[in-house]
Amino acid sequence: MHVFVTGASGWIGSHTVDDLLAAGHDVTGLARSDASAAALEAKGVTVLRGHLDDLDALRRGADGSEGVLHLANKHDWSDQAATNAAERAAVEALGTALVGSDRPLVVASGIAALAPDRPATEHDPSPFTGVDSPRGGSENRGFDFVDQGVRSIAARFSPTTHGVGDHGFIAYLAGVAQERGVSGYVGEGTNRWAAVHVTDAARLVRLGLELAPAGTRLHAVAEEGIATRDVAAAIGEALGVPVASIDPADAAGHFGFIGGFFAMEMSGTSGATRELLGWEPTGPTLLEDIAAGAYAHVAER
Q1: Total structural domains in the chain?
Q2: CATH number of residue 274's parent domain
Q3: pLDDT at position 80, please?
Q4: How far is CA 136 from CA 84, 95, 125, 144, in A?
Q5: How high is the mean pLDDT of the chain?
Q6: CA distances (Å), 120 to each of 69, 140, 156, 243, 267, in order?
Q7: 75-100 tens-digit pLDDT
Q8: Predicted confidence (pLDDT) at residue 32 exceeds the cutoff of 60
């Protein structure tokens, strides 16, 4: 299959491209910078120069493909409105290009806020619709194209997709711990975060592209949930700093933008995903990765 990948040089995207190539697929990757283009070309990827706001480039990439993986996102926490609007416009452009083709469109999403008091499941619909909602309601917007002959699939990722070189939420928390000299958790730290190793997530995305029917919600969840105080303890041990509870009222000041997220229950299951695709995670756990030094790069900055 010839697959067009947005976010091809990103954290999850780069590992997914590796998995696609190893499975024998041809890949065209969207690249914004010279460095990203060079990295993709070195792997044998065809490069399409462009960015997430370049809707013409997105349409060209989708038109020339046999399937699309949309893994890019601006992740601009200082301007969420623009991030959400760009995400929605990108999904609309990609979906429109695939109308009537029965080709797959995998849209990246997450499990956050799907079920705040219990583990989220694949049966939980996303409550987000409209451009002003998180990710611009892109999961539901993608599913709008199912009735127009697009095999739309939602790939929901754990709040931490971890591994060596990760610069996501766990790296950010480790950076805060390094800067403040204490690895904190919010309140009692009993709320849980789901986790998955990045190579397992990449394999899941590829399997979903190949096998999942239209309208499927896939959960890239290897561990249903790790208590945030255990995450903080592992970070503290790895960085050699003490561990402490942070009052919820002080969370935003201590952690910055991630304070609200770190106080949330973001656990999830993947039973339906595993049964559908035969997917079984094999990578290390989150706490194993932290203990093994996967976030040592934070201390070296």
Answers
A1: 2
A2: 3.90.25.10
A3: 84
A4: 4, 15, 15, 13
A5: 95
A6: 23, 17, 10, 28, 6
A7: 787 788 889 999 999 999 999 999 99
A8: yes
Q: Rounded distance, CA 244 to CA 247, Å?
A: 10
pLDDT at residue 197 tops 70: yes
Domain that holds residue 27: 2-159+197-221
Q: What angle (nearest 5°) sits at the alpha carbon of residue 169, between those of residues 164 and 175? A: 80
Is residue 94 domain-shared with residue 210, that is, in the same domain? Answer: yes
Q: Do 183 and 111 have their domain in common? A: no
Question: Is pLDDT above 90 for 183?
Answer: yes
Residue found by looking up tokens 């960015």 in the block: 51
Using DSSP bridges, classify how beta strands 216-220 and 151-157 pair: parallel, antiparallel or unpaired.
parallel
By the 8 A CB rule, do 218 and 210 touch?
Answer: no
Predicted local distance difference test score (pLDDT) of residue 228? 98
DSSP classification of residue 268: B
Place of tokens 């954290």: 11
User: Sign (positive/negative) of CA torsion 111, 55, 202, 234?
Assistant: negative
